[in-house]
Amino acid sequence: MTSTRRISYRQRHPLGGSFMSTFVTAYAHSEDPVRQPALANIARESVRSNNGRTDLVEWDGYSLFVHGQRIFLWSGEFHTWRLPVLELWLDVLQKIKALGMNAISIYVHWGLVNPAPGHLDFDGYRALEPLYQMAMQVGLWVVLRPGPYINAETTAGGVPHWVTSTVTSHLRTNGTSYRNAWKPYVTKVAEISTPWQITRGGPIIAVQMENEYVNRDDVGFPGKLEMMVQLKEALLQGGIDVPLTINDAYMGKNYMNGSGSGDIYGFDSYPQNFDCEHPEKWNSVLTNHWDFHREANPGQPLYIPEFQGGAYDAWGPGAPGYGACKQLTGAGFESVFDLNLWAQNAKMINIYMAYGGTSWGHLPFPGVYTSYDYGSAISENRDIDSPKYAELKRQGLFLRSTPSFYETDVIGNSTTAGSHSDHPAVIVDNQDVFGTLLKNPKTGVEFYIVRHLDSTSQKNSSFRLNITAPGALRSNHLKTMQIPIVCPSIQLHGRQSKVIVANLNFERSPYVPERSNKFAQRDQQVILNQAARREPPDLLYSTASIFFTGWTGDRHVVVFYGDAGQEHEFAMRLRGADGRFGKAHALMRVESVRSDNILAGYTIISVLAGMKGLLPLWESAEQVVMYADTEETASLWAPVLEDRDTKSTGKEARDWVSYVGDVAPSNVSSFWSIGTSQSIIVGGPHLVRSASYSLTARRLDLVGDLALDCDTYLTVIALPKYTTSITWNGQSIETFATSELQDASTSAIKLLLRKAPAPASASSLDSFKPPTLVDWEYANSLPEISSTYDDSEWMAADNETTHIPYPPVFGQKVLYGCDYGFCEGVVIWRGHFMGGLEDRVRLVINGGEGESLPANAILYINDIFIRTTYGNSTNNKKIVSETDEYYWFPEGSVDNMGLDETHNNWQTDGSRSPRGIRGYQLSTGTSFDYWKVQGKAGGYQEYHDKLRGIFNEGGLHAEREGWHLVQSEITSQKRPTLDHPQWTKRSPEDGLPATTRFATFDDPERNLPRHHWIISPGGHAGVGFFRTTFDLKVPASHDVMMSVVFDDLDSTAAPPYRAFLFINGWMMGKRIGNLGPQTKFPVQKGILNYEGFNTIGVALWAMEPTIPVHPRITLVTDKVYETGFA
């Protein structure tokens, strides 16, 4: 039976305005019907383990330990090869660090770095060392994922194309031929990466073995486990000391134990799937991860190596584009699904993708187009201006601020009873609301993660929550208390989740001189002792979310936040005898509990609906407390505060210096919690990349980006003591009197950084417009259709056998491009025969796997266009991967759309697609005299473009001639010069000249014999190449994000053409007019020359003779930021 006592309090503070009489309602239980289970019965066995090779990375059933400290691995996926400008990697890493993340996960692309047998190329954007160096600089750990198979929506899943045609054994098995192919690559990756492991002072803390692979012989091919054993052996022999991890494709326990297993097991989770066509349609959250983990591997952390951070989009006329994918997996998805994963106690999570980038050239597998934006938090053009980025940042900074969350037990939820009780472990007074309780078994901190019971619900709900009373209050027979106390309720608005924290003690000062030489101890023991002494916690509860809690010098800073349309409340013990409340605000109530109340010592602060902006609540020499609405937090940043002085000493140094300056290895000074526990809150800028403080100069240095379309004010919260000046991107913005800045109550200063110019006075850069693309030149890029074309230098296509496990359907010769060294892009086949009675030929053409097939081939007899053969795409589900049709005397041009990934039935040889002509047969039964084939100049053995690599070029005449390159490369690569008469003045808007002869039938229904055709002149079908140049002059102080746009003007709704876009030699886009959806192609600085001459080339392939295509091609500005990124 429960008795209830009401305890009133009343005290006014300036911030509160008029006072509202309120009550604290608590419950003293005689029978304790909602008794929480004893932690000993539910806690995981906290036994620290390692791999026997190093103790610098260890783990238990909760989380990882790095350098002896428990961490929550909060990581973002980044594929450097999808951003082939090495200098921009640092930009992406800084933006990932600003999210509050502490690690990145990276795939290495075997096919890129091993383009031919015996040739390993880790130069340029394929390099690994520069990334490792940048990760050390920024302070991000690295999880290395070298495959060999990676999937990643890239051609052949990352397996080199030459492997798919030369290896005699099955892929991804222990076959000798396959092992001989991957081992040199894996050995080289280990050789490069071993010195960059944490054991050698580097950032690599784990290496993943293979990717998403099954350990069963009843599917696919045998030898999987044996291959994993070989791979593990190769990595260890290569010097890998850090833990080896597994990424299972599902909760299948594959390679969790036994030979071939890793040290830490994890599995993928993509709960929302990839239906970007219906971004409002949600799946329910998955709730079985924790149960699986408890049963499968409770001695390891629950690890999700790929948790959905976006979705890929497929080819197709109805494909919605990545804006819809970003909506499908936007801020609401992150709030509900990410926190649902937290509620299942996952402490190692990698968001796939943090930055998607561009699948330029021939990188994509057939199912996706050029953009790999993925709807990720950082967009393809590197922009972060989105609610999705802001939400992920709020989550990351909460995790960074709350180490008590790194070790929690799942106590129960609101629908299941707790241990030793018939009542739910979480009590809420609204049946539409679902809550899960996680509790730190040592400190007693509670985390109530709440959402709608129907996670797809879009309703608004209000509720109250029972929390466990802390130990100090339980001595007064108070078992639970219902919150909020002042506000009527907690609110959930639609697809939203929250973490409600109770009984939290804040981290103590990061500078502890008497323990300064005891690395990794920090203040955790202080908090444990405080809990053991049953002292009241610093934060009793908060229905507002925690944005940040941490230290700037000797000042503790707390920033709460919440939606402006909701009410929020928190009760905490404010520090500092000299403290004062902020200015009164009509939407704030601040009330202290009377000394005779059991909650004495706490101040309850409530926020009413409608509160917007950033509001100081409490300021003292010890503590700063702030509140912001959710929207305001998008422009709040908490960069790590680095020490500019290497030898700061004395009292002033102790007042602010980063904690680990003398207790951690110096090379980890930028790693949060391991190298520093100092931070600073900065508000206003578009991005704050870094913050550092020089005690010698008494100067705070900030680096970041500013938007140009609005006034920007810089707000600095809890400015370090003794500061006399602040710089922004190296420029002094204000100098203060020392006495002003030593005022303990000065918690925030606000300065005007940049005023948006009036339209009439805007600078040339503020109103930057890229040049109009004019003065185009044109040349024919399909001379091979002429009967007089000389193909004597071409390779004879005379193979009669193939290692590709898909034999020809008919025909004497094997006509697969990769068998002749031509694996990427366009491959041209010329079949020769002596004409007689033949009136048709049957061709089986394979140009792209069925998940996505734009046009397969365009066919000619001599110089007469016959027709284009089309496949289809994923989007409308009419999958056509291979065409089998009759043609009249064709000579064909086939585009290889990339190779497939492993099929869903684990048929790993699905990556060995037979791109080319799978069958040919003349109507009379006679054979072709011979076939010739031509693809990329030099094939994969001797390709010319070593800078961009194997996937940049195909076999179009223009590519082989080097027309897409800048002039200096044409010379250095010994390509033919452009000075010849075939070039004429013509723009893509004009389309191809109407010079093609084409065949049409005199019977539209084609019921007459197929030789009844009409030869017509003036057709538009063919392939032409357009080229122009332009200059850019963009100062280094600005990040101008630009794209190339295709506008089809008044063409048909789905104009049948294909275009390859080249920028300064880089193929940065494939535009498929009849499929889409991509018409805009971001082009990065470094691909574009921002300080000089640029060349743009477009190979335009018109696929129908009677439908002219004339796309307008423009260079546009997406965003402009004033940046501190050099």
Class inferred from helices and paired strands: alpha+beta
Note the quaternary state here: single chain
Percentage of residues in helical conformation: 10-25%
Distance between the termini: 68 Å
| Beta strand % | 25-35%
Based on CA atoms alone, the radius of gyration comes out at 32 Å
Mean pLDDT: 86
What's the total helix number? 17
Strand order of the largest sheet: 11-10-9-8-7-6-13-12
Which shape, going by the Cα principal axes? globular
Number of distinct beta strands:
60
Q: Flag low-confidence runs.
A: 1-43, 511-523, 647-664, 737-745, 849-855, 874-880, 1006-1011
The description of the largest β-sheet is: 8 strands, parallel
Question: Strands, helices and their partners?
Answer:
Layout: E1 2-9, E2 22-29, H1 39-42, E3 57-59, E4 64-66, E5 69-71, E6 73-78, H2 89-98, E7 103-107, H3 110-113, H4 129-138, E8 141-145, H5 161-166, H6 176-193, E9 204-208, H7 224-237, E10 244-248, E11 264-267, H8 289-296, E12 302-308, H9 322-328, H10 331-343, E13 346-355, H11 387-401, E14 409-413, E15 433-439, E16 446-452, E17 460-463, E18 465-468, H12 471-474, E19 478-483, E20 490-493, E21 498-504, H13 524-532, E22 539-542, E23 545-552, E24 555-562, E25 568-572, E26 580-581, E27 588-592, E28 603-607, E29 614-619, E30 623-629, E31 636-637, E32 641-643, H14 650-656, E33 681-683, E34 687-694, E35 699-707, E36 712-717, E37 725-728, E38 731-735, H15 738-741, E39 748-754, E40 777-780, E41 795-796, E42 815-816, E43 825-832, E44 841-846, E45 857-861, E46 864-869, E47 882-887, E48 891-896, E49 916-922, E50 930-934, H16 957-961, H17 967-972, E51 984-985, E52 996-1001, E53 1013-1019, E54 1022-1033, E55 1038-1047, E56 1057-1063, E57 1066-1072, E58 1080-1083, E59 1091-1102, E60 1112-1123
Parallel strand pairs: 6-7, 6-13, 7-8, 8-9, 9-10, 10-11, 12-13, 24-30, 32-34, 35-37, 46-52
Antiparallel strand pairs: 1-2, 2-19, 3-4, 4-5, 14-15, 15-16, 16-21, 17-20, 18-19, 21-22, 22-25, 23-24, 25-28, 26-29, 27-28, 29-30, 31-33, 33-36, 34-35, 35-60, 36-39, 37-38, 40-51, 40-54, 41-50, 42-49, 43-48, 43-50, 44-47, 44-49, 45-46, 45-48, 52-53, 54-59, 55-58, 55-60, 56-57, 56-59
